[in-house]
Write a structure and sequence with these properties.
The protein is an alpha/beta fold. The chain is built from 13 helices and 15 strands.
Length: 378
């Protein structure tokens, strides 16, 4: 595990991983055409053919995971897999990620399942179909995942890929290096769901995304910065601003998951589902300012250095301390290489995800910023 104490630049190993992907990886990020790159016992890489699959995607209706499902279907269909999406909710809804479903190829079958916690009802909507692989992008507890895992076991799936969360990691206090999959975790509902499918003997893979963005995103992590930059306000940033973070395009998250489907090298493994490209909080503010064509004032503050009045709602979009994951394992075992970076995408992010969605027209109150920055009494 690479250690990166505060104040030290990005390690050379990390810099090397930020090299631009080759052309084949750009065509289908995460796998090369119709082959997987897998590791041999001696650590060398060999190319193995992808097994074409009939994939069931169990898909949630919101958040960053919602967009992962859309891109995942695109990736799988592009390489020849058959895709059925069992979707939470009663039908197309106004949320961004789900309006985009109309752009999917016509042969992607979308079944609106309603309440996916009513598993027997939802599975009946599959009308007896069976599948060779399942991607579960919905479950958040062992109780939720169990009936779908039971069905998958009956089908004899080659892969059960579960999209979990990197939020379960609990690195040691003061350990600010890249978090690997071996890091200690808390017993969250998603962790218990991971344990459940392992106990059931399924050919599992866990994928733990971190901070997700994309053209059909829900939550915007960068609106916090744009709100202040475009209004001439200082941007509060905790501590020294040199904390490293990853922001991963949902298409890259999806490409990593797709690279595991039909790939025996992925079975029994947990993967951090993120880009290896790192950026500091301060540099992220500067990227946002450049996209907006504005100057920026960064105001560092001590998160414990002020009293919080009753009803205080201020929230910085990331953790106060560095928290970023390593994607080395996915690169080594799955041949994963991202096709996107926030530095390259920041201009369209500003225009399409902020300006086009009315970000400049919002009425905002920055009184709590003044409390954080010590400009008024708490």
């Amino acid at each position: 595990q690479t250690k990166t104490p505060r104040g030290v630049g990005v390690p050379r190993q990390v810099q090397a991983r930020q090299a631009a992907p080759n052309r084949d990886m750009l065509l289908f990020p995460g796998f090369a055409n119709s082959f997987h790159v897998v590791a041999t016992p001696r650590g060398a890489l060999r190319v193995a053919p992808v097994t074409m699959a009939d994939v069931l995607v169990i898909q949630n209706k919101g958040g960053g995971h919602g967009e992962i499902g859309f891109h995942l279907a695109q990736h799988l269909v592009s390489r020849g897999d058959a895709v059925t999406i069992l979707h939470e909710g009663d039908g197309p809804n106004p949320k961004e990620a789900h309006r985009a479903y109309g752009e999917l190829p016509s042969d992607v079958k979308v079944i609106w399942g309603g309440d996916l916690s009513e598993a027997a009802v939802c599975l009946a909507k599959l009308e007896g179909a069976s599948f060779s692989a399942v991607v579960d992008n919905w479950s958040k507890s062992p109780e939720a995942i169990a009936p779908y895992a039971t069905a998958a076991k009956a089908w004899g799936v080659s892969n059960y890929a579960y999209v979990s969360s990197a939020g379960m990691y609990t690195p040691d206090k003061g350990d600010y290096g890249a978090v690997g999959e071996e890091c200690a975790v808390k017993s969250s509902g998603q962790r218990q769901a991971e344990e459940k499918i392992a106990e059931m003997g399924l050919p599992f893979s866990y994928f733990r995304p971190q901070y997700i963005y994309g053209p059909a995103q829900g939550k915007s992590y960068l609106a916090f910065f744009f709100d202040r930059i475009t209004r001439g306000r200082p941007v509060p940033v905790p501590n020294g601003g040199d904390q490293l973070v990853t922001m991963t395009h949902a298409a890259d998250n999806a490409a990593m998951v797709a690279a595991a489907v039909g790939n025996e090298a992925a079975v029994g493994e947990a993967f951090n589902c993120a880009t290896p490209s790192l950026v500091t909080y301060d540099d992220l503010v500067r990227l946002c300012a450049g996209a907006a064509g504005k100057e920026c004032e960064i105001a560092h503050y001590d998160p414990a250095g002020f009293d919080k009045p009753d009803g205080f709602k201020y929230k910085f979009p990331f953790r106060d301390t560095p928290f970023y994951v390593s994607a080395d394992k996915a690169s080594r075992l799955l041949g994963f290489s991202p096709a996107h970076s926030i530095a390259d995408d920041i201009s369209w992010y500003y225009s399409e995800q902020y300006v086009a969605k009315g970000g400049l027209d919002k009425e905002l109150d920055f009184a709590e910023d003044d409390v954080v920055l010590g400009r008024v009494p708490a």
